């Protein structure tokens, strides 16, 4: 295997047009190599996003510090910086240094894969090595879900994402990378990352999580390949929600249910409030017996609606 893997890389890079479908063992080795190379050391860089769904282009500066995490800011956005800790995105005010809000993080373009999801990834996707990129093809739809673009050292320097039905959604590309930057913005971000990584790690240790199973019945319908990965109780604006995160190793969706009714309702019949599709993301909201429900994820709208319907029929209660 140690001989075969460099040979595959050699053939791909030396002979343009060469493509190789990898065995599960080869795929695991390639994935681990890309992860290791991509997160080998601290860096500051500039990424470009081409959003095909919105017809937009923007530039993002990114700081990665090993052992602490990521901080990133869209160029022209002067008031806040975003930070990743665990599976959450923290929005931090640059002037006060305080967290303004916290959101679940379903997709993160600056990391090719999540190490903890590798078994699911290998179970649900076929890997094809093409020239300077690795295409991930869904075993269930036969369509490319994502392609990872390599740099000279095998690190990820870009990725293309696709909707569940195969439509190109976006392309992220690293334009510049500096392993030892020295200017005020980096120093400021380093201080904020150090501060909030310590605080968040302490808070995560005390966050209430459900061991293994949900406290009530969940949706009986789950798309092929997806599994429940995390279940936790969270608070937003004084209101408490149960959150359930499903993943197939690459794509994710999250189901929220209010921990108690938001209003008194005499009817237990479900009421659908909204279904919104934006690019490859779908958002479905509903209500049942005064409880509020929300689904957000990288799904076909029809599939998102089926999940919510199943959830309301079988779950939706404490």
Characterise the protein shown here.
The protein has 318 residues and is α+β, with helices and mostly antiparallel strands. It has 2 domains: 4-187, Clam (outer membrane lipoprotein receptor (LolB), chain A), CATH 2.50.20.10; 227-314, 2-Layer Sandwich (Phosphorylase Kinase, domain 1). Helices cover 22% and strands 42% of the residues. It contains 5 helices and 18 strands. The chain has helices at 4-14, 24-38, 118-124, 184-206, 301-314, and strands at residues 19-21, 43-51, 56-65, 69-74, 80-85, 88-93, 99-104, 125-130, 133-138, 144-150, 156-162, 168-178, 227-236, 239-247, 252-258, 271-278, 281-288, 291-297. Strands 1-8-9-10-11-12-2-3-4-5-6-7 form a 12-stranded antiparallel sheet. It has a 6-stranded antiparallel sheet with strand order 13-14-15-18-17-16, covered by helices on one side. Strand 11 and strand 12 (168-178) form a beta hairpin. The longest helix is centred in the middle third of the chain and has 23 residues, at 184-206. Residues 10-15 have low confidence and may be disordered.
């Amino acid at each position: 295997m140690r001989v075969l893997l460099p040979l595959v890389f050699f053939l791909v890079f030396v002979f343009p047009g060469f493509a190789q479908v990898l065995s599960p063992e080869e795929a695991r080795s390639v994935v681990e190599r890309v992860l290791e190379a991509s997160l080998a050391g601290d860096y500051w860089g500039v990424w470009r996003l081409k959003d095909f769904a919105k017809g937009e282009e923007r530039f993002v500066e990114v700081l990665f510090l090993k052992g602490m995490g990521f901080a990133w800011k869209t160029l022209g956005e002067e008031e806040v910086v975003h930070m990743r800790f665990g599976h959450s995105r923290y929005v931090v005010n640059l002037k006060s240094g305080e967290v303004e809000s916290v959101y679940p993080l379903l997709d993160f373009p600056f990391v090719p894969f999540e190490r903890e999801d590798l078994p699911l990834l290998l179970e649900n996707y076929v890997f094809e090595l093409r020239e300077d990129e690795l295409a991930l093809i869904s075993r269930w739809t036969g369509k490319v879900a994502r392609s990872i673009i390599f740099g000279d050292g095998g690190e990820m320097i870009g990725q293309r994402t696709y909707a569940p039905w195969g439509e190109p959604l976006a392309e992220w590309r690293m334009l510049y990378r500096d392993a030892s930057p020295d200017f005020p913005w980096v120093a400021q971000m380093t201080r904020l990352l150090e501060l909030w990584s310590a605080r968040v790690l302490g808070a995560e240790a005390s966050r209430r999580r459900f061991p293994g199973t949900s406290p009530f019945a969940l949706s009986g319908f789950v798309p092929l390949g997806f599994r429940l990965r995390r279940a936790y109780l969270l608070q937003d604006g004084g209101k408490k929600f149960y959150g359930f995160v499903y993943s197939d190793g690459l794509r994710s969706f999250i189901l929220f249910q209010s921990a108690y009714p938001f209003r008194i309702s005499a009817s237990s019949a479900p009421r659908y409030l909204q279904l919104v599709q934006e690019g490859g993301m779908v958002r479905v909201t509903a209500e049942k017996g005064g409880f509020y429900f929300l689904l957000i994820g990288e799904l076909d709208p029809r599939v998102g609606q089926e999940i919510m319907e199943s959830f309301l029929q079988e779950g939706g209660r404490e």
